[in-house]
């Protein structure tokens, strides 16, 4: 799961060539070997992708999330989801809290004590938000942030 998330974050931040291919392929394998590394690790890759700005993948993630949080506090592209107009992080958060609460109400326990929960409300909301933002940003060629 981390690989997929890291790959998409790096793709979104640095673009397909530099971010996606740089992280998801062996693009830097020979350079790592030449630098005396036994394996091609995340830290070597992020240093290369970021041109030395980050030496640890965790440092990139912290900076990335701070930037996203800062940008989202200024507002989001306005979208309508199930009749509700959303243009802020707080508005989006409220929708997700409601969806998660609906899903949490479906917790079931089987005869062995194992619990399960449906995530259908949350999944449907994620899909709806994605599709609306895709539409409103011309396939994400413009920013989701105001």
Automatic annotation (TrEMBL):
Residues of the signal peptide: none
InterPro entries: Peptidase_M26_C_dom (IPR011505)
GO molecular function, one term: zinc ion binding
Source organism superkingdom: Bacteria
GO cellular component: extracellular region
Domain Peptidase M26 C-terminal: 1-145
Protein name: Peptidase M26 C-terminal domain-containing protein
Organism from which the protein derives: Streptococcus thermophilus
């Amino acid at each position: 799961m981390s690989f997929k998330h890291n790959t998409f974050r790096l793709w979104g931040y640095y673009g397909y060539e530099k971010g996606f291919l740089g992280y998801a392929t062996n693009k830097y394998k020979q350079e790592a070997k030449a630098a005396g590394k036994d394996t091609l690790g995340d830290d070597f890759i992020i240093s290369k992708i970021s041109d030395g700005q980050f030496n640890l993948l965790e440092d990139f993630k912290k900076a990335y999330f701070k930037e996203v949080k800062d940008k989202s506090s200024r507002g989001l592209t306005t979208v309508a989801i199930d009749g509700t107009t959303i243009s802020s992080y707080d508005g989006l958060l409220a929708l997700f809290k409601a969806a998660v609460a609906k899903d949490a109400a479906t917790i079931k326990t089987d005869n062995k004590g194992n619990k399960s929960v449906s995530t259908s409300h949350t999944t449907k909301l994620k899909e709806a938000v994605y599709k609306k933002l895709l539409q409103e940003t011309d396939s994400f060629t413009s920013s989701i942030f105001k």
